[in-house]
């Protein structure tokens, strides 16, 4: 398949570029790889979470969203492979990995290298196990597995945001940070599912296409606004510094791009019935949303690292292309059809 070969070539070229960067500037390359990984991980892990929700709650969204969500969740083993450079080179990324970090006792224990590695491995074991269990489950038992899985996911989804992203600044703490990652995962998963499900449809998209997307956008905006309000109203310099880091230089423009590209403009567009009833318009919004998920995770991770702009930008593009290209090639090779066949959701009669 030509598209598969193109995707694989893009992915291979991106990974080669990231590898060259790793050999020349390992600290920059690994930090940027983490930022790219977090963006793609939001989408893949979010697909598993949303697939469990679809399995638990019957409705019109099941036949529309179940197959692409199953396809995205099937990429979890590949995602675990992409995490290996972070797992091996975490000492070059995270300040807490230095000997004798100046941290409170509990945080020093939580972020101890051995405990952090074990948690990361356990997270992938549980997530991949849930995906395989759901893919092979019978219709009668799938809802029960999904319900248990959602409980585990609520803990894991927020934990990985704290472990893999927030800990890049170990002195910073936000009680809402885990929810920020959960909201990003749901938003990324829905956008991914719509980007796969809507193109080529002749009939109008059902409410199950725009309704959940609007809900996810509103939840994402609410959580982001709550952290902003709490931090600034608390007037704590150490916490306010988190936003000041992301309002300096080029990051100020990125901040406003996220506010409008991920929040304001998609929401205003979805207020129009013409947009909600257009497969093409919804597909464009979904694709833009996917791009903004990658941009936002870079915005979360990279500013405090103070990396040189040009090599960081080039390596970020290479890392995005490497993971996205290989992931797309995996889907195009037929894994999405296999996953959809395994995960054969049948609408229950109520």
What does this 3D model show about the protein?
This protein is mostly helical and 350 residues long. It is 79% helix and 0% strand. It is built from 14 helices and no strands. The longest helix has 34 residues. The C terminus is likely disordered.
Question: Could you provide a short overview of the structure?
Answer:
The protein has helices at residues 2-24, 26-56, 61-73, 76-89, 105-110, 113-136, 139-164, 177-197, 207-234, 237-245, 250-270, 273-276, 279-301, 309-342.
Note the beta-strand portion.
under 5%
Low-confidence stretches: 338-343, 345-350
Order of helices and strands: HHHHHHHHHHHHHH
User: Helical proportion?
Assistant: over 70%
- Average of pLDDT: 89
Shape: globular
SS field, number of helical segments = 14
What would you call the structural class?
Answer: mainly alpha
- The tally of strands reads 0
